[in-house]
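Help needed: design a sequence for this.
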């Protein structure tokens, strides 16, 4: 219960505004650490005193003003004594009361200013550390790899508060990036910004609506590339892999061949670990592909795959140590052991085009479309009811995989 109001002065704050005594309890029997004192001159103006049990520190005295705003009780903290004197706090309380009488909630205004004050850089850091729906490990690989790049593209926005980035800013930046870096890159950068902003809105509820809403139908149209490496060009590509690339980096050379002969997505191939390879069963497990853990799958390994993996098993320990868990390892810029992450090579087809080439080879080798879907981890049962009943065995798929490998070897030869 609060004490009878009296005029709060610097002297009375020290002498009369004391915290609960040690061992004092409240109505519920819980230890009591705070006591309120109200001023007799300004209604609702007071000080809350918090007991400090450390002998080398004084008790904490914080001024507040307590009134109703639009029928709802609000308590606004004004500052601490002695940083703020009693007279200064009383004057500040009267200013806050004037706002509250106009229907303004000072606490809501504080939250709004704090929310609008978070910078893009701070929000991006929070987003980077936020767990992904696919699990922390996959987000690190799929998203964080490009995180720093996207932030660097928006370098002049890094220290701007999110709440100050307007729709016209987004519209102008998207247009500029489209001209400088291309339509797809512009979309990717602003999609990343949209994701960072949406994540910040969950924590900072007073942020304005996401300004990327202005893009609406202004997002650049993207056409998915479906362009397998043609058979007449595949020979030159093979010469480059087995010549220049293998001399420079045999791990990358085998990774590119592995991409072609498995049809795996780039991330699935680059992140293969030895504990996911079963030499006895001749299978490879992919625990967290596109779509998350629910889409985990196994593929059979052909003779070509086994030979390639055994080569890596023999050569990797020489450069990366016997305990290296990755099939396709590398050292990052901090010289930490990791897996290959950036697969693009100047003047060569995109790694994803090798997936298109695998699909084309499978078709021309006479493999059924349903089996191709299974091997490539594509949705096998869409509107086709019959496909939903089919469950091909690993032995059957192994024969199809071998057929595709032989077809590709002939083309490479």
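Sure. Designed sequence:
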């Amino acid at each position: 219960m609060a004490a009878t109001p009296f005029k709060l002065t610097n002297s009375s704050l020290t002498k009369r505004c004391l915290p609960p005594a040690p061992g004092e309890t409240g109505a519920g029997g819980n230890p009591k650490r705070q006591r309120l004192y109200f001023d007799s001159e300004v209604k609702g103006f007071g000080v809350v005193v918090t007991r400090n049990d450390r002998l080398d520190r004084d008790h904490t005295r914080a001024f507040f003003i307590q009134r109703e705003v639009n029928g709802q009780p609000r308590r606004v903290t004004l500052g601490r004594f002695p940083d703020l004197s009693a007279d200064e706090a009383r004057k500040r309380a009267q200013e806050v009361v004037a706002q509250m009488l106009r229907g303004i909630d000072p606490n809501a205004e504080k939250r709004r200013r704090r929310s609008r004050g978070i910078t893009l850089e701070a929000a991006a850091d929070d987003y980077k550390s936020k767990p992904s729906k696919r699990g922390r490990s996959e987000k690190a690989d799929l998203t964080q790899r490009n995180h720093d790049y996207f932030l660097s593209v928006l370098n002049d926005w890094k220290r701007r508060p999110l709440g100050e980035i307007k729709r016209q800013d987004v519209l102008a930046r998207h247009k500029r990036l489209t001209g400088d870096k291309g339509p797809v890159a512009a979309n990717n950068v602003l999609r990343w910004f949209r994701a960072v902003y949406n994540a910040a809105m969950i924590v900072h509820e007073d942020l304005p609506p996401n300004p990327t809403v202005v893009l609406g139908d202004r997002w650049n149209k993207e056409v998915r590339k479906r362009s397998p490496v043609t058979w007449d060009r595949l020979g030159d590509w093979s010469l480059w892999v087995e010549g220049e690339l293998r001399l420079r980096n045999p791990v990358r050379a085998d990774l590119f061949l592995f991409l072609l002969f498995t049809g795996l997505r780039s991330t699935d191939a680059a992140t293969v670990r030895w504990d996911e390879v079963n030499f006895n069963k001749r299978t490879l497990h992919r625990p967290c592909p596109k779509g998350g853990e629910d889409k985990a799958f196994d593929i059979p390994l052909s003779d070509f795959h086994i030979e390639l993996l055994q080569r890596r098993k023999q050569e990797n320990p020489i450069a990366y140590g016997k305990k290296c868990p990755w099939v396709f390892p590398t050292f990052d810029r901090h010289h930490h052991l990791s897996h290959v992450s950036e697969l693009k090579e100047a003047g060569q087809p995109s790694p994803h085009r090798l997936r298109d080439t695998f699909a084309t080879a499978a078709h021309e080798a006479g493999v059924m479309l349903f089996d191709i879907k299974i091997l490539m981890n594509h949705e096998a049962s869409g509107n086709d009811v019959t496909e939903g009943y089919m469950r091909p065995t690993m032995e059957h798929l192994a024969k199809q995989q071998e057929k595709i490998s032989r077809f590709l070897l002939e083309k490479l030869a």
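The chain has three domains: 10-104, 117-218, 231-412.
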